[in-house]
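ugh ok fine here u go
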Amino acid sequence: MFAFITLSQGVNAHEDPDQSGYIQVDGGKLWYRMNGMEHLGKKPAIIVMHGGPGGTHRGLMPYVELADTYPIILYDQLGNGMSAKFVDDINDQSTWTVEHFVKEISQIREALNLDEVIIAGHSWGGTLSAEYAVKNEKGLKAAIFGSPLISTPQWVADNREWITMLPQKYQDAINTHEAAGTFDDPEYREAEDAFYDQHMCHGECVDYGFRKDSKSGNRTMYRTMWGPSEFTANGTLKYYDISPKLHTVEVPVLMICGEYDEAAPKSCKKFADMVPIAENVVVPNAGHAILGEAKDMVIATIREFLNKHAN
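structure:
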């Protein structure tokens, strides 16, 4: 998923895109950026899906490092970040569905004429990667599931287990305010922050300046589709579960998550084992924000996986 938190600033700014623009999708236009254009037609393009629902592409900017070998396309899903400006009707939530956001991937491929692709997503973006992977579309070469939401019931159960490891006062605050529906109470938010200190950024998260001057995500979308916090789902995704379809994926899959991830390692392994060709990697001492905590390891792992399976 995607928490609306502030990360400590690093020293590196993001790279400018080779090309950027807008693509027409159902309900408006989405903004995209591309690096590594010199590899178009020679290597599969990597399409990267951000978290949320309601996040932006900025947290996944480390993927641009792979533009020395592959075309890299990052984008903001409709209604978020740079793609909030050209929504046909800001009051229309009919596009806030799994089906719509999966379709965006196909619309990006068509607009940019991408014959061969690798799909990569983090958290909710991992959901979209899994959804697209089970379609086994022509030209799909590989998929990356980064700390993915595969099953909401499993996600919630795993995070309830993480909650039992918090100090008792935080457990009590979460249980009390969730029962009362008082999610904005300061006591609940304090407990939420304590949870994120362990399971969003287990160590130090650094955004390397990627979020500087960026457009904001869509908190309303997050609450509508997911819920009030990372560990509580009462939105439209409450019963979501793609796991029964994972056995149909025909391309190689990299499953990668943090040791203390909200997408718990034991569940990520279980889901990876459902995919016929899959590698499962756990990032030591990291939470959900693996690219903020262990950027170099994560990018190196992705590069090694793609060298083996997508060249």
